[in-house]
Amino acid sequence: VDPKVQEDMNQFQETFKGIKDRFRLINRIGEGTFSTVYKAEDLLYEHYDNDWDIEEKENKWTSPPLKKRRMGMQALMDMNEYGMQRRRPKYVAIKKIYVTSSPSRILNELDLLNDLRGYDSVCPLITAFRHTDQVVAVLPYFKHTDFREYFRNMIVDDMRIYFRSLFRALAAVHSKGIIHRDIKPTNFLYEPDKKRGVLVDFGLAERQGLDAKPCICTESADHRRRRVANSVTANMGPSNGYPKNDSRPSRRANRAGTRGFRAPEVLLKCTDQTTKIDIWSAGVILLTILSKRFPFFNSADDVEAMIEIATIFGIKRMKATGYLHGVMFETNIPTIGNAGFTLEKIILWSTCRNDSGKDGKEVPLTDEEKSAVRFLERCFELDPNKRISAEEALEHEFLREDVY
Ligand code: ADP
Ligand code: MG
Which of 200, 250, 306, 385 falls between 20 and 30 A from 120, CA-CA? Predict the structure, then answer.
């Protein structure tokens, strides 16, 4: 272990009262914007089958069980019923959520994880502890390989297995009306040898509005077109760049997520976002694998991200997408054409298989790759209402078990 990491772990063990009695920290395995994650050995793992668990269940949320109190820890959550039936894992991931996160955010993450217990494809929450302002979540440790080590070597069959696993997880999460909001390779812990992955990190997840129907506006298309055309931007005419002293009322919507993975409706600040935003992000992962380029999209901000998307899909479809969300899409960037490019072209070009590649001959996509591209097109429907759902995805020719 790196001495700096060891020092960090020592400090954590000293300051989080009681943690040493239960866990032995092994290494630091993740350090993100919102948390630090450690791999640890659960020293009490052999004693799980006794009544201790039941006692704790009775005391959920309110008074922590005596044993825990003696350990100086406060149980925030009850035991995982799932975990009581099975033997608990010896190795765990301890997610130390940064104290700068708001209590409601932390509660949201734990609450959603608690709701998702019992799905194989979602990393279950074992328990959570609080000491003063520090909250830690304890999860089973999942062995996984860094995406960057394997994505370039994946053949279509590997993609099928990867995405079957990912879309099973998404179907589970979405069936609960939960939007993950941060689908990307580092939040899907995948082990190529085991052909299985689990979804982690519900730090940005939220419940979908009960009757969220993105942007099926009640006004008629005609009325909408007229309203948008009469808007301030339309009157100002296409300006160079984007307006500096924009006097239009700003739109507010949840934009949480990771750059490069945000769906167009998130970039356009649609206020009625749905689980379909996760499907878009999963599509970005597939495009990354097919194009062998990571990160595929590399924008610094939302406007640049729109430019990247518009370069592929073209002005015509972007305008239609804008209308859908009540905004006007205008651009005078010369590289954005009216028709855009097919995903097939983008992939051939990214992998140097088009006619400007090595031998000046195009190496066309195989039938299998074409099937993957057809699936990708369904994930990249600009209109979230038309975009494929996770449930439907599992029935798509690309993912269906019986086809190949
Ligand atoms: P953050 O909100 O900081 O992104 P995550 O929950 O995504 O936190 O965890 C950060 C990283 O820690 C992950 O990308 C992964 O590498 C590692 N990690 C998280 N949970 C586990 C787990 N259960 N098993 C193994 N590694 C994990
Ligand atoms: Mg993460």
Answer: 385
Q: Which residues are catalytic?
A: 182
Give residue-wise pLDDT tens across range 234-243: 555 555 555 6
Has residue 95 got a pLDDT over 80?
Answer: yes
Q: Could you tell me the pLDDT band of residue 402, with boundaries at 50, 70 and 90? A: confident
142 Ramachandran zone, left/alpha/beta (phi>0; psi -120 to 50): beta
The residue nearest atom 14 of ligand 1, judged by CA position, is 186
Measured distance CA(370)–CA(391) in Å, rounded: 21
Mutate to test the pocket of ligand 1, among 37, 90, 182 (most ligand atoms within 8 A of CB): 37
In angstroms, the CA 346 to CA 291 distance is 8
Q: How far is the CA of 32 from the centre of ligand 2 (A)?
A: 6
What separation, in Å, do the N-terminal and C-terminal C-alpha atoms of the chain show?
Answer: 44
SS3 of residue 127 by DSSP = strand
Say how many C-beta atoms besides its own lie within 10 A of residue 221's C-beta.
10
List, for residues 180-229, the tens digit of each pLDDT value: 999 999 999 999 999 999 999 999 999 998 766 655 544 556 666 666 66
Residue to substitute in 29, 33, 41, 136 for testing ligand 1 pocket (most ligand atoms within 8 angstroms of CB): 29
State the distance from the centre of ligand 2 to the C-alpha of 170, rounded, in angstroms. 16
Check residue 314 and give its pLDDT.
Answer: 98
The C-alpha atoms of residue 296 and residue 36 are separated, in whole angstroms, by: 26
Do the beta carbons of residue 393 and residue 381 sit within 8 Å? no
List pocket residues of ligand 1, CB cut-off 6 Å.
29-30, 32-35, 37, 93, 95, 123, 139-142, 186-187, 189, 200-201, 203
